[in-house]
Structure formats: C-alpha cells, structure tokens
Amino acid sequence: MKASKTSIGRSVDRPDAKIRFYLFHGPDVGQSRALGARLLEALGAAKTQLTSAMLKADPALLAAEAGTMSLFGEVRAVWIESAGDEIAAAADALLEAPAVEALTIAIGGSLRKSSVLLKTAEASPLALAFASYAPEGQEAERMVIDLGRRYGLKINSPLAARIAGQCAGDQAIAAQELQKLALYLDASPHVPKDLDVEALDAVGAANNDGNFLRLADFALHGDIATLADELARLPSAGSEAIPIIRSLQRRLLMLAPARARIERGSSVEDAMASFGKTLFWKEKPLVERMLANWTAEDLAKAAERAGTLERELMFTAAPEREAVGEELLAIARKARRH
Predict the structure, then answer these.
(1) C-beta separation of 205 from 320 below 8 A
(2) How many CB atoms lie within 10 A of CB 279?
C-alpha cells in the first residue's frame, strides 16, 4: 500500500498489526529514518539490523529473521538501510511467508517509479510505502509545530519557521533540537510549555556546539583555507562524521530545488524568495552565492556522493574523520572551479 502525507503519522504512531513490511524512501533520508524511529517507539521494539548486501546474497534471510521468535518475549523489528532493488527478492519472500514475529523497516533513498521493490511494497496489502521529501514553507513550520507537540512544546509560527530553517527541514535533526529544548524548559506532553526566543537562543541549533552546517557551507562556498582550519580543530577521536555528512545533505536538499527553479528560467531573487521564513536572514548572502556557483546536476552528484559516504561509514570500519575531510575538501575545490 502507498501512504499519504496525511496518513503516515497515524500509520507509524498506531501501526496496523497486519503490516509486516514498511518501506520509507525518497530524497529526505532523515525524515525516512525519523519515521522508522517513530514506528520503533510506538511498538517498543528492539532493532535487529540487516544489510542490503546480506539480503542480496541470501534472499531467504529476511523471512527467516522476521520469523524467529524472541527468547525473552521482547518486541523486535528488522531494520534495513540502505534498501533498493537488491532486496526485492528478500521482500517477496517476507511477504509470501505464512506469518512473521517481527516486522521489517526498510530505509531507501530515491527510488524510481520502475523500482521492483517499490512496486512490490505499493501492491501488497501487507506492506506500506511512503516517499519522504524535505518540507518547505508552511509545511516545514507545521512539521516543527507537530513535532514540538510530541515533546510538550507549544511553538508559534515564526519560531517554527526559524527552527525549520536552522535544521534545513530535516525532521530527524529538528526532533533532536526539540527534545533538547523540552528538557531545558522541563516540558512534557503532560506539562506543555511555550517555547520562547530566549530558550531557542540559549540551546537551539544555531548556537549548538555540534552545529556542523558551517562546515558544509565552507565547502559549498569553496572556502578551502577556512574549511581546512575547521577540520583540523575536530577532535581526533570524535564521532562527528555522520552529523557533518547529514548537515551537508540538508544544505544540498535545500539548494537543489531553488537551483532547479533558476535553470527553468526563474531569477536568483525569485529562487531566494521561495525559501520564505525557513532561511535565516544572516544566511541569505551565502546561500545566494551558492545558488550562483552550483548547477542542479552538480548538486545532485554531491548529494549522491554524500549518501554513499554515509553508508560506507555506517557499515564499514573506514577512518571517519579522514573520509569526511577528503569529501568536503573535494567539494570545496569543485566550488572554486565554478
């Protein structure tokens, strides 16, 4: 089955017992992961991870894992990332199995309409598929307001727009920020609190020590010297690689639609206006220069490379700091050549 934007929240917060395979796909991988996490939370499930490579080599493994009973009675869910057509045979076997003990959550990137896996998930009554796209404008504001409500925060539209802009519309990052703000205000769903500017300025994304968006901006702007200096300041044994990559992905997802508008004939001014309140005013000059320097094709290539690097770092023992530094510097050199 295919879920809609209006139904997906209900589907993951109150999961249907007959659904055994969830496919969250689309360009906004952060939102897909957030939906998967909400589903795990609703089920109170522990996560068992399988890779696409494992399932490609052994398509029967997924049905076997999902059909295994827990020794201690805990709820389990199988998690697959990144999922593509290479797991289609495994998904078929899962959906054809007589019964399962654990449901499966598959996180995919952008899948073509012709994707075998996507067609399988949308056609089966035992599966649910949803395409994640980064929200924009009022939709991004509503996303932040709805997320805030889950953590006991009452957020007005201007602050919601500011948070959405700082997080580049990334639902997973927005959720992390709102959780911190709820803790700061001692808010909960049972004791909701109003979020104000003072709290946001104190602990929000813009002033967070873990704000790695500036590294992505240095790279995309071609500021090699500053980027190299900032990379050298990172702790050698830190775990910043994945947050840095996701910050890069969020900025690329923000730039790509606006750049596409320009290449279809819109002016840079009109493209900038399309960001609305999601773009913090201090960032506008830098973003405008990025839109002038990058083509839609090159932004898409950079996003694809970032996704590949993220998967490599998550599932291999590659040296994280070096790999991320090399990629950001390669982007900066590309920006300088434009």
Answers:
(1) no
(2) 22
